[in-house]
Design a protein that fits this description.
single chain; alpha+beta; 6-stranded mixed sheet; 9 helices
Length: 375
């Protein structure tokens, strides 16, 4: 087990660059890639992760060609998002490009040729989200592309070309990796059995009306409000042994669509079946900060030392707006791992494995750390 500050001794092989401001699409890409190469004194890259703001989604091809030209490689993988980030800064409401270059022994590989147990970076558009690949026993991590209004266009690319099916996968070769998820929720109840459902409506939980259980679980200050803040409340659905599911992160979060006073039911974004276990939770800034720190430290423990670089995918509903103007997720990881290269974008849903299966998370930040040398 490594200690804080204990990184590999392979020399710096990965770096990031960031450019943003007034619209200058080719210029932003060129500056981002050049800046990353300059940091590690490299003339070319084995591969480039390139994340662009959503204004590139209409036609990203010129930007991809520019990245390939500057990096002298064609393995350009990435996506568009409403905002992008590196360890230097986060960018929202501005045009920009973020690049991470891979050199020496670290390179990008095609995900479809990965080993069963190998982590796969997965990037996709909202229409490409599919139960078919979500239900595969594959350890995927990544995010869904995003834009300001949620209507698109969206874009993902691999090998320097736009993916017309809206789905790409890649592996990071020459490293060991660990995925950690920060949910950022205050748990209000223990897991309880679902007794009665009708479609998306949950009627009875633990022998009581679902709405009755939810109201009683709310903190007193929230319960006294004139209107229940449904936008802050979530339903957690556990997997496996319920007593340890929350502690071990074996759960997904579902949206609460409505609270129905007439029949005391709760309408969720996904159907549940009697016998499943759920708990009620609430989004909370302080809890989000704490769980991000826990996620960073969990990543260190899994790797046996500090990661050499990381990919980070926060939900677009987190970030600076949620934290009051400062992205506390980025700040937390940056403080825990000073000078570590980080790249990511704000997504419309986050992908990370629970046990061996990939799950689509909400209101979460997925942090994947990598350490030079294969495990």
């Amino acid at each position: 087990m490594g200690d804080k500050g204990s990184r590999g001794h392979f020399g710096q092989q990965v770096a990031t660059g960031l450019s943003y401001g007034r619209p200058d699409k080719i210029g932003h890409v060129e500056r981002a890639v050049k800046s990353a190469l300059k940091k590690i004194k490299a003339q070319h890259a084995n591969g480039v992760l390139l994340f662009l703001t959503s204004d590139y989604a209409h036609n990203p091809n010129p930007a991809l060609r520019a990245a390939a030209r500057v990096a002298s490689c064609t393995q350009i993988t990435g996506a568009t998002g409403i905002g992008i980030l590196t360890e230097e800064e986060w960018v929202i409401d501005s045009s920009g490009a973020a690049a991470m270059v891979f050199t020496d022994q670290v390179r990008l590989g095609l995900g479809q040729h990965a080993d069963h147990d190998q982590l796969r970076l997965t990037l996709c558009t909202p229409p490409a989200v599919s139960a078919r690949w979500l239900d595969e026993p594959v350890k995927r991590f990544g995010a869904i592309t995003s834009d300001e209004f949620g209507h698109g266009p969206f874009a993902v690319w691999t090998a320097g070309a736009l993916a017309k099916n809206g789905f790409v996968e890649a592996t990071v070769e020459g490293v060991s990796g660990a995925v950690s998820v920060a949910r950022g929720i205050q748990v209000l109840t223990a897991p309880m059995q679902v007794d009665e459902t009708r479609g998306f409506d949950v009627h009875r939980v633990a022998s009581y009306p679902a709405l009755h259980v939810l109201i009683n679980a709310l903190p007193e200050s929230v319960r006294k409000q004139k209107h229940v803040p449904l936008h802050l409340l979530m339903c957690g659905v556990t997997f496996g042994e319920p007593e340890t599911a929350i502690e071990e992160g074996r759960f997904r979060l579902d949206h609460i669509i409505s609270a129905n006073a007439d029949d005391r039911s709760i309408t969720l974004s996904h159907e549940l079946q009697p016998g499943e276990r759920l708990f009620w939770a609430m989004r909370d800034r302080l809890t989000a900060e704490r769980t991000m720190l826990d996620a960073a430290r969990r990543c260190r423990r899994q790797l046996g030392g500090d990661p050499d670089f990381a990919l980070m995918f926060p939900c677009l509903s987190r970030g600076p707006l949620f934290f009051g103007g400062t992205d506390k997720d980025v700040v937390t990881v940056r403080n825990e791992f000073p000078d570590m290269p980080i790249i990511g974008f704000y997504g419309n849903g986050e992908l990370a494995p629970i046990s061996e299966y990939c799950h689509l998370h909400q209101y979460s930040t997925v942090l994947t750390g990598f350490r030079y040398g294969q495990s």
